[in-house]
Amino acid sequence: MPLHPPVCSVDCAQGDSYHRKKFATISRAGNPRKMSDQNINFEAAWAVSQAPATGRRAQAHRLANAMRRVIDHLVQVAAPEEDLSAAADALERYAKRLSKYPVSRSYEGFAESANAGDPHAFFDHSPLIGISNPLAPPIRLAVLGDKVEGRGTFGVAYEGPPGHVHGGFLAAAFDEVLGMAQSLTGNPGMTGTLTIRYRRPTPLLTELVFEAYVDRVEGRKIFTHGTLSANGVLTAEAEGLFIAVGQERFAAMAAMVTDRTSPPPKKTK
After folding, report:
1. What pLDDT was estimated at residue 76?
2. Which CATH number is 257's domain given?
3. DSSP states of the chain as a string?
4. pLDDT, mean of residues 138-151
């Protein structure tokens, strides 16, 4: 199997990036709105989320960044056995320490985090743009008129061909950036088809620039286009078809996850 096939198509029944961010909410008169609300201003919500991190959120960003550095070192540094053992011991201790806290999934917008003084956590957990997610490079997004721009640097943990980014990670990144663009229509949906054309290998350790926009909308179908460049050179293009499904569908999906992760009710005597 070639490392970079000429065309990669991904058909997603559920849409791997259904873009939780598009349903982030903003408070009105102190009352947080939820995913089931019908008229959510995505651009306003995104702007709110970009304020500087403080308190718990800032420490979550710091922890995730440290974990990225550990991952980066682990995949390329020839550390001796004793240092690897010490690092594993420390991480196991902290994993155990964090496991004692309840699972928190902010699928209902800012309802919970607003009470904690943190109206931005909803955006932080994406595997591509989430600053609090150590799996994310992360990619920094910006809405520029009717386009979306994403900038990020992929480290050696994302390597496919020697010295270059694995094509699967680029496909996932395109899904996220195109997903942001289609969210701006006000009637966002889930990924139906994602087609990537790899023009040339994309280098690691280089700032990459994604650009995406909505080409047209036909009923429930939202057609998007995107490009990826490194040092001003085009390395890949993408076309994404998103299917608008309605806020209620996302709310139902979120409710299922919330039910699955919620602790069982206490038994009454």
Report:
1. 93
2. 3.10.129.10
3. --SS-SEEEEE-SS-S---GGGG----BTTB---TT-S---HHHHHHHHTSPP-HHHHHHHHHHHHHHHHHHHHTT----HHHHHHHHHHHHHHHHHHHTSPP---TTTTHHHHHTT-TTGGGTT-TTT-TT-TT--PPEEEEETTEEEEEE---GGGBSSTTBB-HHHHHHHHHHHHHHHHHTTSS-EEEEEEEEEE-SPPBSSS-EEEEEEEEEEETTEEEEEEEEEETTEEEEEEEEEEEE--HHHHHHHHHHHHHHHSPPPPPP-
4. 93
